Automatic annotation (TrEMBL):
<dbReference type="InterPro" id="IPR023198">
    <property type="entry name" value="PGP-like_dom2"/>
</dbReference>
<dbReference type="Pfam" id="PF13419">
    <property type="entry name" value="HAD_2"/>
</dbReference>
<protein>
    <recommendedName>
        <fullName>HAD family hydrolase</fullName>
    </recommendedName>
</protein>
<dbReference type="InterPro" id="IPR023214">
    <property type="entry name" value="HAD_sf"/>
</dbReference>
<dbReference type="InterPro" id="IPR036412">
    <property type="entry name" value="HAD-like_sf"/>
</dbReference>
<dbReference type="InterPro" id="IPR050155">
    <property type="entry name" value="HAD-like_hydrolase_sf"/>
</dbReference>
<dbReference type="InterPro" id="IPR041492">
    <property type="entry name" value="HAD_2"/>
</dbReference>
<dbReference type="GO" id="GO:0006281">
    <property type="term" value="P:DNA repair"/>
</dbReference>
<dbReference type="GO" id="GO:0008967">
    <property type="term" value="F:phosphoglycolate phosphatase activity"/>
</dbReference>
<dbReference type="GO" id="GO:0005829">
    <property type="term" value="C:cytosol"/>
</dbReference>
Amino acid sequence: MKYIVFDFDGTLVDSTKALVHAWNVAAKKFHFTPLRLEDVPSLLKYTIKERAAMYNFPLFKLPIIMPGIYKIYREQMALVTVKEGVRETIEHFIHEGYQVAVISSNKRTNIEAFFKQHHIEGIEEILTSSKIFGKDSMLKKFMKEQNIPTQSMLYIGDEMRDIEACHKVNVPVVALSWGYDAEPLLVAAKPTYLIKHIDDLPQIVAQHFQMN
């Protein structure tokens, strides 16, 4: 059985407006710098730690701040949209017999609500963690629980931290260049594959599993 595991924000959905709104509400409470929506594209070339420093965001307080941000995010779900081609791509993978899952640092309730609202079905598993740098632990746990060898899984994400997490547990990873990290950051992290359009994803997945 082959597993395709997706990231959520930036990969399957564009949640920029909702996240910026939630960020700015939290910024007032925790005294870090607000973010303008028009500034987001220019930030994609920086790492998370660099962005945090630029906006005086205390990374050590992530476990305290993130639950509140995702609660506000839930209230702004109307601002979250499906990325172009995502629905059709998921349906294709399910039709081809792949098991499709999501591993994200967003809240499970947010993801489930979005899928229900947009009639996206067939997602076998949704795993989440409030630790934005903890996806390797989630991947390891998921593979152990489902008894999945690394050659039977392919992770698909849009950030440097996705690639780094996959490297830690030897999971091959497809990096998508249209998400929340710019292409040079993704290239520097050395993904297994890098694609620039979702139409290329089915072919990459098919070729990968043919070789493995």
